[in-house]
Amino acid sequence: MSEAEVVPLLEPREGIPPVIETPEVLQEAIERLAAGDGPVAVDAERASGYRYGQRAYLVQVRRRGAGTFLIDPVPCSDLTALDAALADAEMVLHAASQDLPCLSELGLAPRSLFDTELAGRLLGYPRVGLGTMVETILGFTLEKGHSAADWSSRPLPADWLRYAALDVELLVELRDALQLELEEAGKLDWAMEEFAAILATPPKEPRQDPWRRTSGIHRLRSRRSLAVVRELWTTRDRIARDRDLSPGRVLPDAAIVEAALELPRTPDDLAALSTFRGRNTRRHAPAWFRAVQRGRTLPDTSLPEHSVPGDGPPPAHRWAERDPAAAERLSTLRSVVAALADEHTLPTENLLQPDSVRRLAWSPPEEATPEAVGAALSGLGARTWQVTLTAKPLAKALFRLAAKRES
Prior knowledge:
Blueprint: E1 7-8, E2 19-20, H1 23-35, E3 37-46, E4 56-64, E5 67-71, H2 80-85, E6 90-93, H3 96-105, E7 112-115, H4 116-122, H5 130-138, E8 140-141, H6 158-169, H7 171-185, H8 188-200, H9 223-243, H10 247-250, H11 253-262, H12 267-271, H13 279-283, H14 285-297, H15 319-322, H16 324-343, H17 348-351, H18 354-362, H19 370-379, H20 384-406
Parallel strand pairs: 1-8, 2-5, 3-6, 6-7
Antiparallel strand pairs: 3-4, 4-5
């Protein structure tokens, strides 16, 4: 589409709707949405980087025949009535896996889903952001600039509300256009399987040792330093939760790692570190020093190991040394998946999850048959369409490698 054909979308068709802040007004909106028709566009705005957790601070809903509604989930934290009213409707979200957890916390959980971002991936669009897809497919440009705002602030500025309303303004139209493209490409069944899989995915279990994801932790070599990271991370998480602040605003990861590297012995030593001079950081200086002291004085038997054993194969970069045959299998299987993905015009990770390819290469089935490989992939969570496309080519590759080793 040429630049001349692109039209800026500056205002919602019905104007910026007022924010719903009371149960009575919410009930009126629910009745109007229930009387509408067709799919329901849904979006949520969070305050990532500002608040603890991923709760929603604004929910946008739009349906044909009803219009757009902006719901403040702080005073209207129970959306189960809305959920019940829309139980039979398909909900349209962009990058659904990002918003579904916070919507579920409010009681809103779709039974039928269309994810416009995932549809774009399956169709091979190189850029699948909402604004880019609306521009590329529908010919409108959306306002940018507020996705990373602090949506927990009140009152919400008018330009933020305009941005939020526009995010659902054309979402159903985008869904309809993408469905036509999926049908023409023979990929609609793939998409329906993927959408159903998103809805069937259980909530994520808490990550084991989440402190190990501290940015920069790879610089640490001693278990003592890791203990300091663990103590500081745990203290920061408690303070951040109590103050409802993003942990990074309470104490940056860089400060945790610097303290673990330097192992300061006095409060003055800790305060002298460059990363401990911020106002928020100084506010809890005694707590940080106590955490460092706990890490420094733990008995050796209580120090964390450098790594924890996982339930999967080791990191791929170690395979060549530990198991050259597995490394060769991985390289070959990755090439097969990449070629298939290119043939069908979609990202390799949407054809088969990289972790599934690694696990198959590390522990292939005893018999390199399409049936055995397909069963292995299904056990790893691959959908029917993925197994149909990949099982036979992967089985052939495994068979050739096994035959070569035996000859």
